[in-house]
Amino acid sequence: MNKYPKSARPMKFNVRAANNILFQQNRKGPKIVSPRCSHKPNESQMSNKAIRDLLLNDNLDEIEKYATHALMGEKLPDLSPYELSLVAKDLENRRAYFIDKGYYNKSLQAKAALDHVKELQLIATKIEAQKQEQTEIFLIKGYSKTDYTIFNHKMTAEEDKLNLKYENKLLSIEERQEKEKKDLEEEWHSKAKLRMYSHPSTKLIELKHVQKRLLDANELDKAAALKQEIDELELKERQEGARNWTNDYNRAVEMLAAKHAAERDFYDYDKDLKQQVFKAKVDIGSIAFDNRNRALKIRETVANDMDKYWRTHSRSIYEVAPPPPSTTRSRNSNYLNLNFPN
């Protein structure tokens, strides 16, 4: 009956047989018994290489082959952390089997191989983690570059749209102001407006009525004298009307010009304000991208140093909350000791 538990058997029959060949002891030395030959080979001719060849024959799977290589102290190929963990598990099972059978020297050899494989596993894990981090950084840099290009195109489009908006707005203001100037000129040079400033006074109208009555009464001398007074008053009123028209016209032109200047000042203020807001938006976005690139640069520098990245990475994995403040009841308690990977 086989004393080795079936659930813990790490190797096939030929491997267990080879292990028995390796470690059977008698007074004369190791006793070699081939599991496939009925005759016994010469023990002095059985070397470690022959034993190794025996272990590697009969279609062993890759993991058992790698475990045997490690047990023989040979160099292993580049394996993934998962494959190395399987090799380590195989060596652990072999070591347990050696201890169970009393092969303590070989159990120490398996322990040394196991420690070496675990070191390789840690190195492979570090390399894999570093490659994953570098790949992620490369992708993020690509995404960041794409985002920055999109951001620049978007900001350029918004700037063009803003400039076009204010160009159209200025054109509309200029067209409206030009129309208002034209309307002002037409209004002040219209017949209706000129009549307002050439309308005779009540006194002049009464004098003309008196003159007409004098002419009707055939009082020509008085009518002639009154006509001279009427002509002087009419000339005076005409000059005063022209002067009033000029003053009012100039005042209207000045008021319209002041209104247009205020509109232009407000346009300039509004345009400058919108441009400042837009520039602040661009600056904030650029600062965000600069900060992201700076953080990526720091992250890339850390990732390029495998050991430094692993210390940072393992710290983030094993980091826990700090213990609570010491109290009378818990002062003598033993806090959890965390062993971080190297």
Structural class: mainly alpha
User: Beta-strand percentage?
Assistant: under 5%
Number of helices: 9
How is the largest sheet built, in terms of strand order?
A: 1-2
Shape: rod-shaped
Radius of gyration from CA coordinates: 54 Å
End-to-end C-alpha gap: 44 Å
Q: What is the makeup of the main sheet?
A: 2 strands, antiparallel
Contiguous runs where pLDDT drops below 50 for at least 5 residues: 1-47, 317-323, 328-342
**Annotation, overall tally of beta strands:** 2
Mean pLDDT: 77
Order of helices and strands: HEEHHHHHHHH
Percent helix range? over 70%
Overall tally of domains = 1
Keywords: Coiled coil
Region (Disordered): 320-342
Coiled coil: 216-243
